[in-house]
Amino acid sequence: MNPSRFAAVQWLSFLVVAALLLYLLSPILAPFVAAGILAYICNPLVQRLSARKIPRTLAVVLVMCGLLLLLAVLLLIMLPLLEKEIERFVTRLPDWIETARLRLLPLLQQWAGPDLQWDSQAVKEMLLSHWKSAGGVAAKLLPWLGSSGGAIIAVLINLLLIPVAMFYLLRDWNQLVKRVDDLLPRHWHAKVNEILAEVDRILAEFLRGQISVMLLMSAYYSIVLWLAGLEFALPIGIVAGMLVFVPYLGMIVGLVLATLAAVMQFPGFSGVLWVWGVFGAGQLIEGMLVTPWLVGERVGLHPLAVIFALLAFGQLFGFFGILLALPLSAILLVGLRHGKSWYLTSDMYKKI
Question: Residues 36, 203: contact at Cβ < 8 Å?
Protein backbone atom coordinates (compact mmCIF):
# COMPACT_ATOMS: atom_id res chain seq x y z
CA MET A 1 0.00 0.00 0.00
CA ASN A 2 1.14 3.53 -0.77
CA PRO A 3 2.67 5.06 2.45
CA SER A 4 0.54 8.19 2.15
CA ARG A 5 -2.63 6.10 1.78
CA PHE A 6 -1.61 3.94 4.73
CA ALA A 7 -1.13 7.09 6.85
CA ALA A 8 -4.54 8.37 5.75
CA VAL A 9 -6.17 5.04 6.75
CA GLN A 10 -4.42 5.23 10.14
CA TRP A 11 -5.72 8.75 10.81
CA LEU A 12 -9.21 7.83 9.61
CA SER A 13 -9.24 4.81 11.95
CA PHE A 14 -8.09 7.02 14.83
CA LEU A 15 -10.86 9.56 14.14
CA VAL A 16 -13.51 6.81 13.95
CA VAL A 17 -12.38 5.31 17.28
CA ALA A 18 -12.25 8.77 18.88
CA ALA A 19 -15.76 9.61 17.63
CA LEU A 20 -17.07 6.25 18.93
CA LEU A 21 -15.52 6.88 22.35
CA LEU A 22 -17.02 10.36 22.47
CA TYR A 23 -20.45 8.92 21.65
CA LEU A 24 -20.19 6.17 24.29
CA LEU A 25 -18.87 8.54 26.97
CA SER A 26 -21.20 11.44 26.13
CA PRO A 27 -23.38 10.95 29.27
CA ILE A 28 -20.40 11.78 31.54
CA LEU A 29 -18.65 14.38 29.38
CA ALA A 30 -20.93 17.35 30.15
CA PRO A 31 -19.15 18.55 33.35
CA PHE A 32 -15.73 18.16 31.74
CA VAL A 33 -16.81 20.10 28.63
CA ALA A 34 -18.27 22.86 30.83
CA ALA A 35 -15.08 22.92 32.92
CA GLY A 36 -12.97 23.08 29.76
CA ILE A 37 -14.95 26.04 28.40
CA LEU A 38 -14.67 27.91 31.71
CA ALA A 39 -10.96 27.09 31.96
CA TYR A 40 -10.35 28.38 28.43
CA ILE A 41 -12.17 31.62 29.28
CA CYS A 42 -10.31 32.13 32.56
CA ASN A 43 -6.85 31.00 31.44
CA PRO A 44 -5.72 34.42 30.07
CA LEU A 45 -6.43 36.02 33.45
CA VAL A 46 -4.53 33.24 35.24
CA GLN A 47 -1.62 33.76 32.82
CA ARG A 48 -1.56 37.48 33.61
CA LEU A 49 -1.51 36.85 37.35
CA SER A 50 1.24 34.24 36.93
CA ALA A 51 3.29 36.74 34.90
CA ARG A 52 3.25 39.00 37.98
CA LYS A 53 5.16 36.38 40.01
CA ILE A 54 1.99 34.96 41.62
CA PRO A 55 2.20 31.14 41.94
CA ARG A 56 -0.06 29.57 39.35
CA THR A 57 -2.05 27.54 41.89
CA LEU A 58 -2.76 30.70 43.89
CA ALA A 59 -3.69 32.53 40.68
CA VAL A 60 -6.18 29.76 39.84
CA VAL A 61 -7.72 29.96 43.32
CA LEU A 62 -8.03 33.76 43.04
CA VAL A 63 -9.74 33.56 39.64
CA MET A 64 -12.18 30.86 40.78
CA CYS A 65 -12.96 32.87 43.92
CA GLY A 66 -13.69 35.85 41.64
CA LEU A 67 -16.16 33.73 39.65
CA LEU A 68 -17.81 32.60 42.88
CA LEU A 69 -18.05 36.22 44.02
CA LEU A 70 -19.69 37.19 40.71
CA LEU A 71 -22.25 34.41 41.16
CA ALA A 72 -22.89 35.58 44.73
CA VAL A 73 -23.46 39.15 43.50
CA LEU A 74 -26.03 37.92 40.97
CA LEU A 75 -27.81 36.00 43.73
CA LEU A 76 -27.77 39.06 45.98
CA ILE A 77 -29.38 41.03 43.15
CA MET A 78 -32.11 38.43 42.54
CA LEU A 79 -32.99 37.29 46.07
CA PRO A 80 -34.20 40.70 47.39
CA LEU A 81 -36.29 41.05 44.25
CA LEU A 82 -37.93 37.66 44.77
CA GLU A 83 -38.44 38.33 48.48
CA LYS A 84 -40.11 41.68 47.74
CA GLU A 85 -42.36 40.15 45.08
CA ILE A 86 -43.47 37.31 47.38
CA GLU A 87 -44.29 39.86 50.09
CA ARG A 88 -46.33 41.89 47.60
CA PHE A 89 -48.12 38.75 46.42
CA VAL A 90 -49.20 37.81 49.94
CA THR A 91 -50.31 41.42 50.62
CA ARG A 92 -52.40 41.74 47.45
CA LEU A 93 -53.84 38.22 47.49
CA PRO A 94 -57.04 39.20 49.40
CA ASP A 95 -57.78 41.99 46.92
CA TRP A 96 -57.36 39.57 44.01
CA ILE A 97 -59.72 37.08 45.63
CA GLU A 98 -62.37 39.76 46.11
CA THR A 99 -61.94 40.97 42.51
CA ALA A 100 -62.29 37.39 41.28
CA ARG A 101 -65.48 37.01 43.33
CA LEU A 102 -67.04 40.15 41.84
CA ARG A 103 -66.19 39.14 38.28
CA LEU A 104 -66.64 35.36 38.35
CA LEU A 105 -69.55 34.86 40.75
CA PRO A 106 -72.24 36.23 38.33
CA LEU A 107 -70.94 33.94 35.58
CA LEU A 108 -70.87 30.93 37.89
CA GLN A 109 -74.41 31.68 39.10
CA GLN A 110 -75.66 31.76 35.52
CA TRP A 111 -74.13 28.33 34.98
CA ALA A 112 -74.85 26.66 38.38
CA GLY A 113 -77.87 28.62 39.61
CA PRO A 114 -78.45 31.65 41.85
CA ASP A 115 -77.97 29.61 45.04
CA LEU A 116 -74.22 29.40 44.43
CA GLN A 117 -72.29 31.65 46.81
CA TRP A 118 -68.62 32.62 47.12
CA ASP A 119 -67.17 32.91 50.63
CA SER A 120 -64.05 35.02 50.18
CA GLN A 121 -63.00 34.51 53.79
CA ALA A 122 -63.14 30.73 53.40
CA VAL A 123 -61.05 30.94 50.22
CA LYS A 124 -58.45 33.07 52.01
CA GLU A 125 -58.30 30.66 54.95
CA MET A 126 -57.97 27.68 52.59
CA LEU A 127 -55.07 29.29 50.71
CA LEU A 128 -53.33 30.27 53.93
CA SER A 129 -53.72 26.78 55.37
CA HIS A 130 -52.23 25.28 52.22
CA TRP A 131 -49.40 27.84 52.35
CA LYS A 132 -48.61 26.92 55.97
CA SER A 133 -48.74 23.19 55.25
CA ALA A 134 -46.00 23.32 52.64
CA GLY A 135 -44.01 20.95 54.83
CA GLY A 136 -46.64 18.30 54.19
CA VAL A 137 -46.06 18.63 50.48
CA ALA A 138 -42.37 18.12 51.07
CA ALA A 139 -43.16 14.96 53.03
CA LYS A 140 -45.22 13.65 50.13
CA LEU A 141 -42.32 14.30 47.80
CA LEU A 142 -39.94 12.16 49.85
CA PRO A 143 -40.94 8.84 48.21
CA TRP A 144 -40.43 10.41 44.78
CA LEU A 145 -37.07 11.78 45.86
CA GLY A 146 -36.12 8.35 47.11
CA SER A 147 -37.00 6.68 43.82
CA SER A 148 -35.15 9.39 41.89
CA GLY A 149 -32.27 9.63 44.36
CA GLY A 150 -29.73 8.15 41.97
CA ALA A 151 -30.48 10.69 39.25
CA ILE A 152 -30.38 13.58 41.73
CA ILE A 153 -27.06 12.39 43.16
CA ALA A 154 -25.68 12.10 39.61
CA VAL A 155 -26.68 15.69 38.85
CA LEU A 156 -25.09 16.93 42.07
CA ILE A 157 -21.88 15.01 41.34
CA ASN A 158 -21.75 16.51 37.85
CA LEU A 159 -22.17 20.01 39.30
CA LEU A 160 -19.42 19.39 41.85
CA LEU A 161 -17.15 17.98 39.15
CA ILE A 162 -17.18 21.24 37.19
CA PRO A 163 -15.14 23.35 39.68
CA VAL A 164 -12.84 20.40 40.47
CA ALA A 165 -12.08 19.72 36.80
CA MET A 166 -11.78 23.43 36.12
CA PHE A 167 -9.19 23.82 38.90
CA TYR A 168 -6.94 21.06 37.58
CA LEU A 169 -7.32 22.18 33.96
CA LEU A 170 -6.33 25.74 34.85
CA ARG A 171 -3.45 24.65 37.08
CA ASP A 172 -1.96 22.27 34.49
CA TRP A 173 -3.02 24.18 31.35
CA ASN A 174 0.49 24.85 30.03
CA GLN A 175 1.64 21.26 30.61
CA LEU A 176 -1.46 19.86 28.89
CA VAL A 177 -0.98 22.14 25.87
CA LYS A 178 2.69 21.09 25.66
CA ARG A 179 1.81 17.39 25.76
CA VAL A 180 -0.69 17.80 22.94
CA ASP A 181 1.87 19.83 20.99
CA ASP A 182 4.47 17.08 21.42
CA LEU A 183 2.06 14.51 19.97
CA LEU A 184 1.47 16.43 16.73
CA PRO A 185 3.15 14.94 13.63
CA ARG A 186 6.26 17.02 12.95
CA HIS A 187 5.49 17.60 9.26
CA TRP A 188 2.08 19.03 10.26
CA HIS A 189 3.31 20.85 13.35
CA ALA A 190 3.73 24.34 11.87
CA LYS A 191 0.43 24.28 9.96
CA VAL A 192 -1.58 22.92 12.90
CA ASN A 193 -0.11 25.54 15.23
CA GLU A 194 -0.96 28.25 12.70
CA ILE A 195 -4.58 27.04 12.52
CA LEU A 196 -4.87 26.72 16.32
CA ALA A 197 -3.46 30.23 16.81
CA GLU A 198 -6.06 31.61 14.39
CA VAL A 199 -8.84 29.66 16.14
CA ASP A 200 -7.67 31.01 19.50
CA ARG A 201 -7.70 34.58 18.17
CA ILE A 202 -11.20 34.21 16.75
CA LEU A 203 -12.55 32.64 19.95
CA ALA A 204 -11.03 35.52 21.95
CA GLU A 205 -12.82 37.98 19.65
CA PHE A 206 -16.02 35.97 20.12
CA LEU A 207 -15.75 36.25 23.91
CA ARG A 208 -15.10 40.01 23.75
CA GLY A 209 -18.07 40.42 21.44
CA GLN A 210 -20.30 38.33 23.70
CA ILE A 211 -19.34 40.42 26.74
CA SER A 212 -20.18 43.55 24.75
CA VAL A 213 -23.60 42.06 23.91
CA MET A 214 -24.25 41.27 27.59
CA LEU A 215 -23.36 44.80 28.70
CA LEU A 216 -25.37 46.46 25.93
CA MET A 217 -28.47 44.34 26.51
CA SER A 218 -28.23 44.90 30.28
CA ALA A 219 -28.23 48.64 29.64
CA TYR A 220 -31.13 48.32 27.16
CA TYR A 221 -33.39 46.31 29.47
CA SER A 222 -32.58 48.43 32.53
CA ILE A 223 -33.20 51.77 30.78
CA VAL A 224 -36.29 50.80 28.78
CA LEU A 225 -37.94 49.01 31.72
CA TRP A 226 -37.23 52.10 33.84
CA LEU A 227 -38.85 54.29 31.18
CA ALA A 228 -41.85 51.92 31.24
CA GLY A 229 -42.17 52.68 34.97
CA LEU A 230 -41.16 49.27 36.35
CA GLU A 231 -39.93 49.55 39.92
CA PHE A 232 -37.34 46.75 39.71
CA ALA A 233 -35.98 47.75 36.30
CA LEU A 234 -32.29 47.74 37.30
CA PRO A 235 -31.96 44.24 38.82
CA ILE A 236 -34.24 42.66 36.21
CA GLY A 237 -32.36 44.39 33.38
CA ILE A 238 -28.97 43.26 34.73
CA VAL A 239 -30.10 39.66 35.14
CA ALA A 240 -31.73 39.53 31.69
CA GLY A 241 -28.69 41.10 30.03
CA MET A 242 -26.10 38.95 31.82
CA LEU A 243 -27.89 35.74 30.83
CA VAL A 244 -28.08 36.47 27.09
CA PHE A 245 -24.93 34.40 26.54
CA VAL A 246 -27.30 31.41 26.80
CA PRO A 247 -29.74 31.91 23.90
CA TYR A 248 -33.31 32.68 25.05
CA LEU A 249 -32.47 32.11 28.75
CA GLY A 250 -31.93 35.81 29.48
CA MET A 251 -35.14 36.77 27.71
CA ILE A 252 -37.20 34.04 29.44
CA VAL A 253 -35.87 34.73 32.97
CA GLY A 254 -36.14 38.50 32.52
CA LEU A 255 -39.64 38.23 31.05
CA VAL A 256 -40.89 36.06 33.93
CA LEU A 257 -39.42 38.37 36.59
CA ALA A 258 -40.60 41.53 34.84
CA THR A 259 -44.11 40.14 34.28
CA LEU A 260 -44.37 39.17 37.95
CA ALA A 261 -43.16 42.63 39.01
CA ALA A 262 -45.56 44.35 36.59
CA VAL A 263 -48.56 42.31 37.79
CA MET A 264 -47.72 43.25 41.38
CA GLN A 265 -47.11 46.93 40.61
CA PHE A 266 -49.56 48.05 37.91
CA PRO A 267 -53.32 48.03 38.52
CA GLY A 268 -54.23 47.23 34.93
CA PHE A 269 -52.95 44.91 32.20
CA SER A 270 -51.44 47.72 30.09
CA GLY A 271 -48.26 47.77 32.19
CA VAL A 272 -47.74 44.05 31.55
CA LEU A 273 -48.20 44.62 27.80
CA TRP A 274 -45.51 47.31 27.88
CA VAL A 275 -43.13 44.89 29.61
CA TRP A 276 -43.84 42.19 27.03
CA GLY A 277 -43.23 44.71 24.25
CA VAL A 278 -39.86 45.65 25.79
CA PHE A 279 -38.67 42.03 25.85
CA GLY A 280 -40.08 41.25 22.41
CA ALA A 281 -38.23 44.21 20.92
CA GLY A 282 -35.12 43.31 22.92
CA GLN A 283 -35.11 39.78 21.54
CA LEU A 284 -35.39 41.07 17.98
CA ILE A 285 -32.66 43.69 18.52
CA GLU A 286 -30.31 41.20 20.16
CA GLY A 287 -30.85 38.40 17.63
CA MET A 288 -31.05 40.41 14.41
CA LEU A 289 -28.77 43.39 15.11
CA VAL A 290 -26.57 43.34 18.23
CA THR A 291 -25.24 39.76 18.09
CA PRO A 292 -24.54 39.78 14.32
CA TRP A 293 -22.86 43.19 14.66
CA LEU A 294 -20.80 42.76 17.84
CA VAL A 295 -20.10 39.02 17.58
CA GLY A 296 -20.44 38.14 13.92
CA GLU A 297 -18.19 40.91 12.61
CA ARG A 298 -15.53 40.19 15.26
CA VAL A 299 -15.24 36.55 14.23
CA GLY A 300 -15.55 37.28 10.51
CA LEU A 301 -19.08 35.98 10.03
CA HIS A 302 -21.64 37.81 7.93
CA PRO A 303 -24.82 38.74 9.90
CA LEU A 304 -26.86 36.34 7.73
CA ALA A 305 -24.29 33.61 8.47
CA VAL A 306 -24.75 34.24 12.21
CA ILE A 307 -28.53 33.85 11.95
CA PHE A 308 -28.16 30.75 9.76
CA ALA A 309 -25.61 29.22 12.18
CA LEU A 310 -27.95 29.69 15.16
CA LEU A 311 -30.83 28.04 13.29
CA ALA A 312 -28.74 25.24 11.75
CA PHE A 313 -26.88 24.19 14.91
CA GLY A 314 -30.10 24.45 16.91
CA GLN A 315 -31.84 22.14 14.45
CA LEU A 316 -28.97 19.63 14.50
CA PHE A 317 -27.94 19.63 18.17
CA GLY A 318 -30.79 21.28 20.06
CA PHE A 319 -30.16 23.69 22.93
CA PHE A 320 -26.42 23.03 23.19
CA GLY A 321 -26.14 23.52 19.44
CA ILE A 322 -27.58 27.03 19.82
CA LEU A 323 -25.24 27.69 22.75
CA LEU A 324 -22.12 26.68 20.80
CA ALA A 325 -23.26 27.75 17.32
CA LEU A 326 -21.12 30.89 16.97
CA PRO A 327 -17.81 29.58 18.38
CA LEU A 328 -18.15 26.36 16.38
CA SER A 329 -18.98 28.36 13.26
CA ALA A 330 -15.91 30.51 13.84
CA ILE A 331 -13.72 27.39 14.13
CA LEU A 332 -15.33 25.93 11.00
CA LEU A 333 -14.64 29.22 9.21
CA VAL A 334 -10.91 28.90 9.98
CA GLY A 335 -10.91 25.39 8.56
CA LEU A 336 -12.73 26.53 5.41
CA ARG A 337 -10.24 29.38 4.88
CA HIS A 338 -7.27 27.03 5.03
CA GLY A 339 -9.12 24.45 2.93
CA LYS A 340 -9.76 27.11 0.30
CA SER A 341 -6.06 28.09 0.26
CA TRP A 342 -5.05 24.45 -0.19
CA TYR A 343 -7.63 23.95 -2.96
CA LEU A 344 -6.51 27.03 -4.93
CA THR A 345 -2.92 25.75 -4.95
CA SER A 346 -3.81 22.11 -5.67
CA ASP A 347 -3.60 20.25 -8.97
CA MET A 348 -7.36 19.67 -8.79
CA TYR A 349 -7.95 23.44 -9.21
CA LYS A 350 -5.12 24.16 -11.65
CA LYS A 351 -5.70 21.14 -13.87
CA ILE A 352 -7.24 22.07 -17.19
Answer: no
